[in-house]
Design goal:
Length: 116
């Protein structure tokens, strides 16, 4: 077996969040479960209707559960920014479809919407 090349620890790559537009910002580790707090890496401030600029209006938490990997259930709590268009008042959230699009044709990734 070839000698492995070690690099600095990276929780995003360990949890296969690379390319999903999420980054881990915190952790809550218990003996029986783990919760990783995440943020969305791609800003999404432009209105889908009029292309006006959105103003952040708080966050919502989207929970995603990992497919079985090891013995400790792990859940992502993704803080998703909500925006309100300053021109037409439309409201939207940052796009997290890459992170939990299992079930869609061609989708990949270990995360799925969590229940509860
Ligand atoms: Zn608008």
């Amino acid at each position: 077996m070839p000698k492995p090349a070690f690099v600095s620890p990276d929780l995003d790559s360990f949890c296969l969040l690379d390319g999903l537009g999420l980054t881990v910002t915190g952790q809550h580790i218990r003996r029986d479960r783990a919760i990783l707090e995440c943020g969305v890496t791609v800003d999404d401030p432009w209105c889908r209707s009029c292309r006006g600029r959105g103003i952040p209006r708080g966050t919502v938490v989207r929970r995603l559960a990992h497919l079985p990997l090891g013995w400790r259930p792990t859940t992502l709590w993704v803080r998703v920014l909500r925006y309100r268009c300053s021109d037409c008042a439309r409201v939207w959230r940052q796009d997290t479809s890459k992170a939990a699009d299992r079930g869609r044709p061609g989708a990949v990734g270990p995360w799925a919407p969590a229940s509860g």
